[in-house]
Design a protein that fits this description.
heterotrimer; A mainly alpha; B alpha/beta; C alpha/beta; A: mainly alpha; C: alpha/beta; four-stranded antiparallel sheet; 9 helices; globular
Chain lengths: 292, 320, 337
């Protein structure tokens, strides 16, 4: 299915201005996150530097009221937020694909049961539930657990989207051709339908990441996640807790806000442009053009 | 062997709706006919007459509500999965829209290799290539122009031929062609239709040709059945049925086909009522509501099948 | 008897310009077309899917929206004796012409009717939008009823909603709608496609009624040669964005000259005719990748050297018959092998 290799795909995508911007910003953010491995400070320790220092050469983004370097703190926060959200998105994709494919192809009772479960997840008051769960397991809430919980709650909507895509694909003539060619159910779903479903999976993966980051920030601001682990949310929480704005320690609260904004925007642009690129309709137009 | 495929009293009722409001649609109403080996049999009618539903039932994509289907004397409507799979070696199909027949995101030749692999016809690449070349030759496509290409790189006519070639891979005895030329350009149509004729003459292939286009049906079929609202109302040799139609519906159908000859322009205006009274009649002939020759009995009783020579008509006008 | 020209098309070129990830693709749907439409005639534009006929009539009606672009040429309307270029008029003037001077019935137009209005209100709104003077309700409804009666459509449909009518009836209502203001020119794009055969006959008959009542010009676009045979006076055969043959309908069916037209006419199956019919060889070209010279030459069995480099133009061979083919010499009795 991939013609000309991934490099060509990247080149094509980069022609789209939206993708270019999002990609560049995300690369910068990713590099910042990777820098965390070179941090001279341990993020869990307090008072490793003088408190409330404004940005200077030694501390690029200043220090906070806990006595930590804001810049290096941010690199950890970024890294953890990205990791949690990727894990949540990945986990929820798997559930969404499985549920969507099975419900869509099998139909009948299986479909109804699965959709019932999915709808139940959709109408649950998500924030309240998360707050409840988080307040119960707050102390043992590792990044892993947080990602898992977010993943369990993030699949319902996309499962339905995938299911409806499968439903419409089932009626298309090539589904019948596949049956007439002797293919079994699993093979049909993998070979015929998956290429159509992948765009949804990719763009919803990125969307889900955004959602997970947002959820994490919300939980953290309420003080309901493990506040020792630096994430964008916990940074914000501490900044608010110490009343950073009032005290004039603006660099502490502005950093996570700005980084979050850039993260959200770049993820959004990527999801939209990749979705467009992988859309079967634009793909078809490109197929005829590769051979020149 | 007289009958390759035989349908007996086939009925299909679709039920739409949930517990609260259900609508029953009688898509196929007690249909019986047979196809001989080495014959092109046409099932003709307008949209909604049930012809496509019949083809889906034969292929196993839908289940009949009642009735039986026999292939080479054996019942095939109640088979288990494995036997159904084996049946696909004997009965294959091509469809209306050549661009939808193949997944636009997959290369066309992948279907060929897949078919050969799934049905264990060839187990290595060279054998497979040989068979594919043979079938492509039979439909007039060269292997090189076919290899490694996506559906969008072909024209409608080419794709339809490729679709036929794929159907021939398992050496079927019966090919079901559902509106195979309605989406193909007029100047290329005859090449596909001629292909059916050639395949019949060279390999003894039988074709169930489903269409609403009576002129190609006339050109290619041996026998034809005209369907209206789920019932066959006239059946017989194509020449006889189409040149000398007996049932009023067949007559109107034939008269409504604009002929490609300026000398044969319509002189009178036919006003056939579009709006129906009593849509789904429980009793009587289904066409009685619009028939210009309807008798009183037509509205009360369902007409019998009356044999006149080689033709069978479902109409009270021919009651002896 | 020389008829008046009501629309004249001169060297019209309309291309679709697509920009896909940096590469520009030109689809030459209308590639230098010159035609004349006369008063009181039915002109059929024949050709296969993808030959550009829909784009041609859209350009004649003035429906050029991106990615379609007018690349050159003129479309002249005969307005009160003066030939005026449609594309030099102001937007306001253009809109005033639509439905009054020229009507357009697009493909699949049965879905054009407003689903929440009754048919009589759809008509009323339409008339009020396009007539300057104020008409009272009674006058309008009478005019509608008269029009439907003339066309043989049942009165009871006026109180129905579009979804209550069958597809064929909706198509006829759309045609009635497009003709109620008695335009001089009606463009019908594939009016019978997707309709059942019996209903098709009703639509074709309706078009004939309108033509004989209003004595206007109908430009009928369809790939169905049977429809052309039944209703057209003159036919233009279109291939790969150009008109390659034009003439009186009887002449074209009995004496096609261009090799493509020959294949087209002789491949049509007929009742009572069991002789073998052959299709044209090869495949129609892609409009974004046309062969040089005559677009048909890769498929033509009679190709000359000049065919590969120069595109032929329409030559009059007498009897109102025009062909674009290098095999033809000017004058009467021209015949290709």
């Amino acid at each position: 299915m991939r013609r000309g290799g991934s490099l060509k795909i990247l080149k094509d995508l980069l022609r789209d201005r939206k993708f270019k911007f999002g990609f560049i910003v995300l690369c910068i953010l990713a590099s910042l996150a990777l820098l965390s491995f070179l941090s001279p400070y341990d993020p869990t320790l307090w008072n490793v530097a003088p408190r409330d220092l404004p940005p200077s050469l030694e501390h690029i983004l200043g220090t906070n009221s806990k006595g930590q370097d804001v810049f290096w703190e941010m690199t950890f926060a970024l890294r953890n937020s990205i990791v949690v959200s990727m894990f949540a998105a990945f986990f929820s994709r798997i559930i969404a694909i499985l549920v969507g494919l099975i419900a869509g192809y099998k139909g009948g009772i299986t479909d109804r049961i699965l959709m019932f479960i999915s709808d139940s997840f959709l109408i649950m008051p998500l924030l309240l539930l998360l707050l409840l769960i988080a307040s119960l397991v707050r102390e043992s809430l590792s990044l892993f657990t947080l990602g898992l919980i977010l993943g369990i709650f993030g699949w319902a909507w996309d499962a339905r989207v995938i299911r409806s895509q499968v439903l419409s694909l089932r009626e298309r003539e090539f589904s019948f051709t596949a049956v007439l060619s002797g293919s079994k159910t699993f093979s049909i779903v993998m070979k015929e339908y998956l290429p159509f479903i992948l765009p949804i999976v990719f763009s919803t993966f990125i969307n889900n990441m955004s959602w997970a980051i947002g959820m994490e920030i919300t939980l953290a601001i309420f003080g309901l996640s493990n506040l020792d682990i630096p994430t964008l949310g916990t940074m914000l929480h501490w900044a608010i807790h110490y009343q950073a704005i009032l005290l004039g320690v603006w660099w502490w609260i502005l950093t996570p806000i700005l980084i979050s904004v850039f993260l959200f925007v770049s993820l959004y642009l990527l999801s939209v442009s990749i979705g467009e690129y992988l859309d079967p309709r634009t793909r078809l137009q490109r197929i005829g053009m590769v051979k020149k | 062997m007289q009958k390759l495929l035989e349908l007996r009293n086939l009925t299909k009722i679709f039920t739409i709706g949930s517990v609260v409001s259900r609508i029953k649609i009688l898509a196929v109403d007690n249909v019986s006919f047979y196809i001989k080996p080495g014959e092109i049999f046409t099932l003709a009618g307008e949209s909604g007459c049930g012809k496509t539903t019949i083809s889906k039932i034969i292929l196993g994509f839908e289940e009949a509500t009642s009735g039986e289907i026999f292939y080479k004397g054996n019942r095939i409507d109640n088979l288990d999965r494995k036997s159904k799979q084996n049946l696909l070696k004997e009965i294959q199909a091509v469809f209306q829209n050549p661009f939808e027949t193949f997944n636009p995101l997959r290369k066309v030749d992948s279907y060929f290799y897949e078919t050969l692999r799934n049905f264990r016809i060839a187990d290595n690449f060279d054998d497979a290539k040989k068979i594919i070349k043979e079938k492509l030759d039979a439909v007039g496509i060269s292997f090189n122009e076919f290899s490694e290409k996506y559906p969008s790189e072909f024209s409608g006519g080419q794709l339809q031929r490729i679709s036929i070639a794929r159907a021939l891979l398992t050496n079927p005895s019966l090919l079901i062609a559902d509106e195979p030329v309605s989406m193909v350009d007029a100047s290329l149509r005859m090449s596909i239709v001629n292909l059916f004729k050639d395949l019949k003459e060279r390999y003894g292939l039988s074709v169930l040709y489903i269409t609403h286009d009576l002129t190609t049906a006339y050109y290619v079929s041996d026998r034809i059945a005209i369907m209206f609202r789920g019932s066959i109302i006239e059946l017989g040799p194509a020449n006889e049925v189409l040149m000398n139609p007996k049932h009023p519906y067949t007559q109107i159908l034939k008269a409504s086909v604009p002929e490609a000859d300026p000398k044969k322009r319509w002189k009178e205006t036919i006003r056939l009522s579009d709006i129906e009274y009593e849509e789904y009649r429980r009793k009587g002939c289904k066409f009685a509501g619009r028939c210009p020759k309807a008798l009183d009995i037509c509205k009360e009783e369902s007409p019998p099948n009356i044999k006149i020579g080689d033709v069978t008509v479902k109409c009270f006008l021919y009651r002896k | 008897m020389k008829k008046n020209v009501v629309i004249k098309v001169e060297h019209l070129k309309s291309y679709y310009i697509l920009d896909i990830y940096g590469t520009k693709k030109y689809i030459k749907a209308v590639n230098d077309v010159s035609l004349e439409f006369y008063e009181n005639e039915v002109y059929g534009i024949a050709g296969e899917s993808g030959c550009g006929k829909s784009t041609l009539v859209k350009s004649i009606f003035g429906l050029i929206t991106p990615p379609l672009s007018l690349m050159g040429g003129k479309v002249l309307y005969n307005l009160n004796g003066r030939m005026t270029n449609l594309y030099e008029l102001e937007d306001k003037e253009c809109n005033a012409l639509k439905w009054n001077f020229i009507s357009y019935i697009p493909q699949g137009s049965m879905s054009v009717l407003n689903p929440v209005l009754k048919i009589k209100d759809i008509f009323k709104d339409f008339i009020e939008d396009h007539i300057d003077r104020k008409m009272d309700k009674h006058e309008i409804y009478t005019a509608i009823e008269n029009h439907l009666e003339q066309l043989g459509l049942p009165m009871k449909i006026l109180n129905a909603y579009p979804h209550q009518l069958s597809g064929g009836m909706r198509q006829r209502v759309t045609i009635a709608l497009a003709t109620i203001l008695k335009p001089k020119v009606i463009i019908a794009d594939e009016p019978t496609t997707a309709l059942d055969v019996v209903v098709q006959r009703g639509v074709i008959q309706l078009l004939r009624e309108i033509h004989s009542l209003q004595k206007n010009t109908i430009i009928l676009v369809t790939h169905d040669m049977g429809v052309h045979a039944n209703i057209a006076d003159r036919i233009g055969i279109m291939y790969a964005g150009r008109i390659i043959e034009e003439g009186n309908v009887k002449e074209i069916f009995e004496n096609p000259i261009h090799p493509y037209t020959k294949y087209l006419i002789f491949s049509l199956p007929k009742f009572g005719d069991k002789t073998r019919k052959e299709s044209a060889p090869g495949n129609p070209p892609s409009l974004s990748n046309l062969p040089p010279g005559c677009e048909f030459h890769p498929r033509c069995p009679y190709t000359l050297d000049i065919c590969k480099t120069n595109a032929p133009f329409l030559i009059d061979i007498g009897n109102d018959h025009k062909v674009a083919c290098w095999l033809v010499k000017e004058g009467n009795n021209a015949k290709t092998p």
